[in-house]
Amino acid sequence: MISKFIERTIVGLGIGVMLVFSLVIPKPAQAVMPPDFFFNIGAQVVQFFSILVALFSVVFGTIFQFFRTRFILIKHKTLFGLGAIIFIVVISLILSYVYANYQQNVEYKKWLAASRTNNVVGQNNVNEAISYPDENNQLDIGTATAVVDTSSSKFVATNIDRADSSATFINNYYENIANGNYQTAYDMSKQTVDYKTFKDWYSATTKITLDKLVRIDETKSSLELTLFEGQQFTRYGVLMTLHFENGLPVRVEQSEVKILNEGAIQDNTNALVNAADISQEYLFYNDNQNANIILSNQEFQNSLNQAPDNYLVLDAREDIEFANGNFPASTHIRFADLKAGRWIELPKDKFVYVICWSGIRGKEVAEFLRTKKIVAAYLENGAKGWVDAG
Predict the structure, then answer these.
(1) DSSP result, 230-285
(2) pTM
(3) In CATH terms, is domain 284-389 a member of 3.40.250.10?
């Protein structure tokens, strides 16, 4: 009886391990690869380990059947069975560890090759090949002069692509607010507050202008929005994510806002910007705008040793580069998407450390973010320099 129990336990162990890893860990795990870059090989190691356990269990079960008669003579049958199980697990772990190291080296070499292919041209891997046009860089903070519509219309929208369902939805949403159709607008909103609060937000609004709308991806758009209360106006940069059903936008899912300008209309024609109010909005930038824009490896490491609430690590590379290898807990936003308006979602009260491959693109990103009053700095030699430094 005991021998059959041990036999079933050994075989069941292998099957159980495979089922657990198949059901509990359906997504690829990530293995840590020095220096702190992730590679998607964890799932392969898990599968390799479970296969080894199952294989050894079957082999041991077969051997056990062959030597069943001799096993009867063993006094401590339970201890022998447990020892066999431990032996199977230990051997499987050792072989999995060897396989993991081998696979890490393979993925590391693939990551280096892919990063060079997608980022670098020239014999010395110095110049990054990807460049971005500036036509999407439309939302400007605190410009000396503000172009403000001074007509009597309650709602003015310019350059709206009516063939784009997202643009049409956003246009209709703000047009309903401008015309006092608060219930309709509320039904289209994300409804994080009750209707009365939503209505109170806009009850004093006398006019809304909407322009510079840029479609970023399937659900996200950026836009510039000006809300008037009499002669006073506030201009916002808005990053809006829409919720779709059956291929059409039905409500606002998320919106993030940064103030671009504040001021007043003078003589019903000219706009006067209130620079003092803008300065108060970006106190962190004002206090740290002279911080060095270049970050050495040692300075980066020192910053990482601080509380994570003080900084954000931004990976501005392309999607394929980020998938091949990325820094732990980094935020991934492509440079093109930053310029299209996703810079709005970055914090204005933290240091933003930019990572690219060699540091060249990181410099562009950091300089761009500084124009948006975000205290950004780039890793001097990029991810490559960080990797080489070990």
Answers:
(1) TTEEEEEEEEEEEEEETTEEEEEEEEEEEEEEEEEEETTTEEEE-HHHHHHHTHHH
(2) 0.63
(3) yes
